Amino acid sequence: MSEMSARRDLTTQEWQNAYSGAVMDTFGPPQRILVRGEGAYVWDADGKRYLDLLAGIAVNSLGHAHPTLTAAVSAQMGTLGHVSNFFGTPAQITLAERLLALAEAPSGSRVFFANSGTEANEAAFKMARRTGRPRIVALEGGFHGRTVGALALTHKPAYREPFEPLPGGVEHVPFGDTTALEEAFSPAAVSARGEVAALVVEPVQGEAGVRELPAGYLALARRLTDDAGALLVLDEVQTGVGRTGSWFAYQQPEIGGGVVPDVVTLAKGLGGGFPIGAVIAYGERAATLLGRGQHGTTFGGNPVAAAAALATIGVVERDRLLAHVRQVGETLRRAITTAGNPLVAGVRGRGLLLAVELTRPVAAQVATAALEAGFIVNPVAPDAVRLAPPLILTTDQALDAARFFAEVAVPEPPKEG
Ligand SMILES: *Cc1c(COP(=O)(O)O)cnc(C)c1O
């Protein structure tokens, strides 16, 4: 801390120079250097305030420096901060029970704890392998993480190709295409390529631009996986824990159509900003695929992370944030769409996982203009700006954000010739 306080007068520019001299360049230069946050706001090293409409990519469910979360993390760290998985802790066990209850998971269900989304999906990948079947089906546009198993599930060639060969047996079917999905499970596909171990899908694709699966898709996915004896794995790393207005996105009838999955993976919003991942295995078959000694982690299930998640879930419940997310999300959507900015084509998504659709591929310029105007947003696609604000976003803050989108303009490029 003293080392950092000695540098508290550094400007954003000075910090940016220091960053490029010390931090590996995998993300490009940081847009700003942020020094503190409170609620839905953060402040940069020059003292400028921003309304955080991204929440660390759908992570800071309770905003920044939430007193309940801060107290829970401090209390657990001051009591018992880490023990390894040779031991259990009340926080870890209570969180597992809490997640099973929120998931309305049947008896025999169990939880595995990890530290991130990619690790949760890595565990799901290993569960799929334990079925003894060779094929895993995932979706085009799907994003599941950057470790090699999760990367094999991820579709984007630019992420995959530098690291090939990746673990084999993964096939990608076009997003939302029910015929292609049926083909993947057809007798012809099975006799040519073998049985399907698992189908891995995001109920709403986050990194691909906030794209919701067409109605009925997950119900079909459940029918096909049931008939084939394959696992239905839902990656709710981004959509889980209240983000779309229900604990898990699949629990909304319009998305899930009443399906019960075999596996759900969680991470981003679960710890309210403290790193944690989780795998919920529904029912005894899924829950026993990984046996003793077949998977592990040093930090996973760490009591501080578990306490953070319990506090986050507790506040979502206490403050009725699921209903709040639906209501403020609708306010935000309506205010942006009704403003009539010719640059805005519409808003897609659900709850507080939204994308502002643009009429031109200028999302990067809009995000830069937002930053200048004091709003943090994310150009998730050339023509779409992602909004994933804290679940505690107020109506007034939503209307501030909408005002930015009502007024933002990006000059047309000069016509050729
Ligand atoms: C972010 C994300 C991941 C990866 O999570 P990390 O914590 O970055 O490893 C996996 N799946 C989905 C759907 C995500 O949005």
UniProtKB/TrEMBL annotation:
Its cofactor is pyridoxal 5'-phosphate. It catalyses: N(2)-acetyl-L-ornithine + 2-oxoglutarate = N-acetyl-L-glutamate 5-semialdehyde + L-glutamate. Signal peptide: none annotated. The keyword Amino-acid biosynthesis applies. GO terms for molecular function: identical protein binding; N2-acetyl-L-ornithine:2-oxoglutarate 5-aminotransferase activity; pyridoxal phosphate binding. GO terms for biological process: L-arginine biosynthetic process. Pyridoxal 5'-phosphate binds at G117, T118, F143, D235, E236, V237, Q238, T298. Pathway: Amino-acid biosynthesis; L-arginine biosynthesis; N(2)-acetyl-L-ornithine from L-glutamate: step 4/4. One of its GO terms (cellular component) is cytoplasm. Binds 1 pyridoxal phosphate per subunit. The keyword Amino-acid biosynthesis applies. It comes from the Bacteria. The modification N6-(pyridoxal phosphate)lysine is found at K268. It is found in: Cytoplasm. Pfam families: Aminotran_3. N(2)-acetyl-L-ornithine binds at R146, T297. Its EC number is 2.6.1.11. HAMAP family: ArgD_aminotrans_3. Homodimer. Belongs to the class-III pyridoxal-phosphate-dependent aminotransferase family. ArgD subfamily. May also have succinyldiaminopimelate aminotransferase activity, thus carrying out the corresponding step in lysine biosynthesis. PANTHER family: ACETYLORNITHINE AMINOTRANSFERASE, MITOCHONDRIAL, AMINOTRANSFERASE CLASS III. This is Acetylornithine aminotransferase. It comes from Isoptericola sediminis.
